[in-house]
What we know:
Elements: H1 7-24, H2 32-47, E1 58-67, H3 79-88, E2 93-99, E3 111-113, E4 116-128, E5 138-144, H4 161-170, E6 174-178, E7 194-199, H5 200-206, H6 211-220, H7 226-230, H8 238-249, E8 255-259, E9 267-268, E10 271-272, H9 276-282, E11 284-290, H10 302-311, E12 314-317, E13 328-332, E14 339-342, E15 346-347, E16 354-369, E17 372-384, E18 390-400, E19 403-410, E20 413-415
Parallel strand pairs: 1-2, 2-4, 6-7, 7-8, 15-20
Antiparallel strand pairs: 1-11, 3-4, 4-5, 5-6, 9-10, 11-12, 12-19, 13-14, 13-16, 16-17, 16-18, 18-19, 18-20
Helix pairs in contact: 1-6, 3-9
Amino acid sequence: MPRPITRRGLLASVIHAAGVAMLAAGSGCTAKGSLQALREEVQALQGARVVVPPLPGFRDLRGVIHTHSYLSSDSDGRPEEFLTGAQQAKLDYLVITDHFDPRIFIEGLNGQYGDLTVIHGAEFPLGCTRKRGLARRCASILGFGFGPSIVPTFSPDAYSKPELIAQIKRHGGLVFLGHARGVSDPQYFGMVHGMEVFNIADTMREQYLSFPEFMVDLFVTQQEYHEELLLSVIERPNWLLARWDRLTRAGHRVVGIGGNDAHQNLSVLGVLVDPYGLVYRILNTHVLVDVQGSESPAPPSTQVLLAALRQGRCYLAFSLLCDASGFQFYAADPRSGRPVAMMGAVWEHVPCPQLVVRLPRVGAIEIIKNGVPEFRTVGRELEYTPSGPGVYRVEAFLKLQRRWRSWIISNPIYLLPGC
């Protein structure tokens, strides 16, 4: 049975046709020398990285949320392919969110695979904006981590969207809004644990007009600079961050995550544009799991990982620029320096804490309060005295080709008026 034509399929066709036309016309392309210079600059960024001593009692896990397999209608990815991709990207966990199909309960991977924790879930449609064509935006519900009480006979169509969200949560699952720019009814933001504040597939779709040039460069360089060309995907998600800040400023505890939305299905001119191993390295959601009282080097349990995500003890990082493992943002007692609140936590006690930031390499550090940049400096560490109660988060940037590029986006710490 032929698959339906999707926006992603249409995009691939447009790119393919444009790429062929440009090649036939002998169009110019980015010189290998420029891409080599870019590679050397990125290598210099990565070479300056240092190991940040971990916070006692916590472990930083690097992972990917929102990936698809052959159990989705728009991907042919096999388990061995995304497990290999996870190994290439040095992931600690992988959340699979196939478009809902009862087979995910039978055939879908779930559990421990060596050092990799795999958590199965599903993606459910949430409707689209009224626009048509490539400008149309469609949101989704990402549900994962639900227990065995949701059985293969579970039918999402039997519920309204609010009831579906409640059902997933009732069975122990986490619920996030995917493709959050497509959410047409703001009530959903108050029903879920969090939202994607970056989605790779959406960003690639928004940049589709520049893709023919991308594909020609990829083709003529024989894929030698695939990583360097995909650095163009890394952009600060201004609209989504502004939406997220409005929600948290209004008192909603909304956890921000990254959505890789990996399909490994975009092949143009015989070249696979989005292999799992590469898409898993562009963006990672790091989770700080609580391992206090445990000396075991074994991977923390799925429940411990999900608990940290639920609390918002996590941050996003564009790892293709530089590995951000070891990043720290916490509130500390100004007298002892002891951490008193981690990302996602609420603090309302006296005295008001200091905010501490540590990076694994020098970068621009920006303190954002209630959605507004309040302080910026360049360095590897920062101890900052907040100006008063508010919702504080951190963004970090790395300079590449004379421009500051988004690197790290933290979840907020909520300082209440009581402090």
